[in-house]
Write a structure and sequence with these properties.
218 residues; alpha/beta; Rossmann fold; 17% strand
Length: 218
């Protein structure tokens, strides 16, 4: 009898580019102080989850978050480049306003979530979606009947939410994807099912920026 895989899906902790609304894509940006605090908190929240494996994108903002989870659970981090954020090419490092000013036609197609659109030098949305969904099915298939954590990026989470709920790629996004939020899926056969989304209870009581700076090593 086929058993389900429990997937705990986590977006990386906060980065300075998140706060500046800059597109990160494949650009390898580190966690900021708040992001490091968030990583510790999500690790502590999952310490008793019974995880058998922790997977991560190779980009450091995800890997550092995954490392906090893995250490709390007595595991190591297994890296998968297929869990990377979407490649945004020339958009990377730019704010939304920058993109709309410099590439208005491309920005409109991006805003409309055209599945065939890819930023200059970047990845088309449909290709990105296919990569993410195939990656998660492949990783989960190796852990039938177990629980695994996967630490990735906002775009990856968006694709998996859509895959689990049947939302079209071009449907407007109405769900949140908080940094270091905990999201839960079940994978049975080739079907993903949404169990829980955007749990951020473990992030309550966040210290001030000064307190974070004083208490966390860089």
């Amino acid at each position: 009898m086929q058993q389900s895989t429990r997937i705990v899906l986590i977006r990386h902790g906060e980065t300075d580019w998140n706060t500046e609304t800059r597109i990160q894509g494949h650009t390898d940006i580190a966690l900021n102080g708040r992001g490091r605090w968030q990583a510790q908190r999500v690790g502590a929240a999952l310490a008793e989850e019974g995880l058998q494996a922790v997977y991560s994108s190779d980009l450091q903002r995800a890997h550092a978050t995954a490392l906090a989870v893995a250490q709390a659970c007595g595991l190591s981090v297994q890296v998968s480049t297929r869990l990377r954020e979407r490649a945004f090419g020339s958009f990377e490092g730019r704010t939304f306003a920058d993109i709309e000013a410099e590439w208005p036609a491309a920005a409109q197609r991006w805003r409309q979530r055209d599945p065939s659109f890819g930023p200059p030098g970047g990845e088309a949305l449909q290709a990105f979606y296919d990569r993410c969904v195939q990656a998660v099915h492949g990783l989960a298939a190796a852990h039938e009947g177990q629980a695994v954590a996967m630490v990735a990026h906002g775009g990856v989470l968006d694709c998996l939410y859509r895959a689990a709920t049947g939302q079209a790629l071009n449907a407007p996004r109405t769900w949140g994807m908080a940094n270091a939020g905990i999201n839960r899926l079940l994978r049975a056969g080739d079907v993903l099912t949404l169990v829980g989304w955007a749990d951020v209870g473990h992030l309550e009581g966040e210290p001030s920026a000064d307190e974070i700076h004083e208490t966390l090593p860089r």
